Amino acid sequence: MVIVLMGVTGAGKTTVGERLALDLGWEFHEADDHHPPENKRKMKAGIPLTDEDRRPWLLALRAVIEEALQRQADAVVTCSALRASYRHVLAGGLPDVQFVLLHGSRDVLAGRLAARADHFMNPALLDSQLATLEPPADALVVDVDQPPERQVAQIRDAFGLSAQPLR
Q1: Is residue 138 packed enough to be buried (19+ CB in 10 Å), middle (13-18) or exposed (0-12)?
Q2: What percent of the chain has pLDDT over 70?
Q3: Looking at the domain assignment, is residue 28 inside a domain?
Q4: Is residue 20 part of a domain?
């Protein structure tokens, strides 16, 4: 199974994703690691990415998902995946991919972004991301205004997954 944690900037995709993967003993793949340098420069400058900018990034993430599924490896992948068309690029036709929308109010998200240091994503892009977001009807929705541990437990419970004992 591959779980894609999605949502706008500041939703906690990396924090929750790392904890979920660790808790389950699964692989973790951070979408930000797959952005071309030009995309990061644009976002740092507060320039929203176009669909053309996103396409190679989404295809690289699809390759990560396909490779994990081919190896029968369980994985957690982060990706904003704001539009249905982006989610289709990521997982269209692939079995065993589940989306989890990390959702929060604009105030909660803006507060998190204000406290975040040294990230390439410009907080000014929050409003454009919120405007772009097409919430999926078939995704698990998790409220980000709760501790990450609770979010992880909610995701595990929803998919019937058990934490792995620490070794």
Answers
A1: exposed
A2: 90
A3: yes
A4: yes
Residue 43 makes CB contacts below 8 A (sequence gap 6+) with: 35, 49, 120, 121, 122, 125
* Torsion angles phi and psi, residue 164, rounded to 5: -90, 140
Query: Is residue 129 classed as helix, strand or coil in its secondary structure?
Result: helix
* pTM, rounded to two decimals: 0.86
* Tokens describing residue 132: 């772009």
CATH number for 27: 3.40.50.300
| Paired residues of 3 in beta bridges | 76, 98
Helix then strand count (H, E) for the chain reads: 7, 5
The C-alpha atoms of residue 64 and residue 2 are separated, in whole angstroms, by: 10
In this model, does residue 80 exceed pLDDT 60? yes
Mean pLDDT of 2-21: 94
What total of structural domains would you count in the chain?
A: 1
- Neighbouring CB atoms inside 10 A of 34's CB total 18
* Whole-number CA gyration radius for the chain: 15
Terminal-residue alpha carbon distance, the chain: 22
**For residue 167, is it within any domain?**
no
